[in-house]
Amino acid sequence: MDVNKLNVLREVGYSMKACCFCIHGNFSSNENAFGTCGLHVYSHMKHSDDIRELSIHRSGHCVDFTVDEMKLGQIHGFAEFAR
C-alpha cells in the first residue's frame, strides 16, 4: 500500500468494522457476498426440517467471531484496520 495513503488512513481514524473474516465463514469465492457459517446451524423449516449451516452475509459477524488470518491476508494492507 502507498505509504502516503496509509498515513492518511491512520490520521483520519479509518477502520473496517468486524465482518466475516472468521474461521467459520464459508464462501464459494471472494466475490460472493453470501455463504454459510460452519459453527452455527438451524432447523430449516421453509423447504424441509433439515439441519443446515446458518446462511450469512460477508459484511456481518457474530459474538463467536474468531479471526482467520488467511482471510485477512486477502485485504492486504488494509488488514490493520480490520482488527
Description:
The protein has 83 residues and is α+β, with helices and mostly antiparallel strands. It is 16% helix and 23% strand. It has two helices and three strands, in the order αβββα. A three-stranded antiparallel beta sheet has the order 1-2-3, with no helix packed on it. A hairpin with a 7-residue loop joins strand 1 and strand 2.
List the keywords:
2 helices; 83 residues; alpha+beta; 16% helix; three-stranded antiparallel β-sheet
Beta content comes to 15-25%
Low-confidence stretches: none
> What average pLDDT do the residues reach?
86
If strands are numbered along the chain, what order do they take across the biggest sheet? 1-2-3
Overall body shape: elongated
Could you give the order of the helices and strands? HEEEH
From the alpha carbons, calculate the radius of gyration and give it in angstroms: 16 Å
Helical region count?
2
SSE class: alpha+beta
Quick one: how many beta strands?
3
Largest β-sheet summary: 3 strands, antiparallel
Terminal CA distance? 17 Å
- The percentage helix is 10-25%
